[in-house]
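Lab notebook, page 48
Experiment: co-folding of the full assembly
Goal: obtain a model of how the components sit together before planning crosslinking
Operator: M.T.
Materials (sequences as entered):
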Amino acid sequence: MVRSPDSIPVPSEIETSDHELMLAVRDGQVARLGELFERHHGPLYGFFVRLTGQRTLSEDLVQQVFYRILKYRHTYRDEGKFSAWMYHLGRRVAADHYRKHRTGETVDREEVNLEHIPDDAMDSGEQAEKNDDLALMQKAFAELPLDQREILTLHRFQHLPHSDIARLLDCSVGAAKVRLHRAVNALRDSYFRMRRHDGAR
Amino acid sequence: MNCQRIQDSLLDFEAGALPAAEAEGVREHLKSCPDCQRRWADLQETLVTLDRLPQPAPSPRLRNNFYAMLESQMEAAGESGNPFHAPRPSEHWYSFLLPHRALVQAAAAVALFGVGIALGSRVWPPSDKTSGETAAQLAATRAELAQLRNQVDSVNQLVTYSLAQTQPAQARLQNVVATLGQKKTDEAELATLLGTLAFDPSTNVRLSALEALYAHADNTKVRQGVRAALPRESSPLVQVAMIDFLASVRDREAAPALEQLTRTPRTDEAVRTAAQRALAQI
Ligand SMILES: [Zn+2]
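Observation: model returned without errors.
Model output:
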């Protein structure tokens, strides 16, 4: 019987690594996938929301990734790195979704609206202060091309090292850094342009 | 080094990924080049603002669906058994709110870079083009920093926040997280934790910092820092945790601040109750 834990597990000193967990799942302890889910579903969900701008769809995509992890667990390598593999499957799942729905890689930007997502991590006072900047940043980010949003998300929100990003995007580490550089510059230019046009400043 | 090369390396500089000599070159150049200073300030502001975008959270539907899927797959494979380790009970009532280690790291990154900016603008004053509003904010931040500086003056290690970081960002964060429950922590780390408690925008991270400070509650500087942070803390949750902290070490010097809280009409009810209880304890 599998049950969802009621509380977030407290990290312990002797935490099993993702890799060890995934090897256990691969070698038959399928139920331990629950631990990997608890660790990674939040960030993975954030990845999809930033990519697609759609919350319900993003939940479905996370579900599909974990389904594929289970389905393809036998292909997980001894020397593998779990998070890189998970994002690899994540990109495939997203690509499959868009292929099925014939929208290619264009994302409906009207739906990109994170401003109304309640943020428990920030207090209301601070939020009011920062709201203008955050709203502009949200807009600037949403207007970037998909590939730039993706590389920024992988780097800045998912904290993947350059080498993992390069492997995911199937390019050299140098090329990944150049792409990241361009994405940051594009974001910066767009953000400050919007701020200049924002009359209040 | 010319400006183009400096500007191309700012992203690595920000990440702490430059070799020491190169980082030193960038720092030297920034001291005297307004153009590159501007670039550097813009880059930092962009990244810090990006980092502060709200983290979207999934609905309970996702977890339910996942466990339903896992269960059906296991049934199909003929497996059974509860896979979960019992969560380790933590000594503080709010521990269930503490985020996973990875989240603490991410949030701590925001905190460090945020304070880095504040200090950075002290070291390199913004150009004249800065609007009055921003200048006022900077002044407020400076005043807060000065206040905090006084609190930890003899520790005098706020410099750990400075931009002069040679360690990679990841390693610096690990240091913050590694202090959780650690008995032997040096003063620089304590200053970092106190800075996080006072300045971090995330309630969870401030709680984590407080959690880590428990191991050092016998240190007068630490108690001073918590006392200083208490009145300016905006979250009742964190305020109550701070009050519990001060009560647990029977910090007599906290009495005036606690009394002030019980008298102020706009104090949250839970905070008022906690303050009254603490006053009886200390
Ligand atoms: Zn220059």
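Interpretation: Chain B touches chain A through 62 residues (CB under 8 Å).
Next step: discuss with group before ordering constructs.
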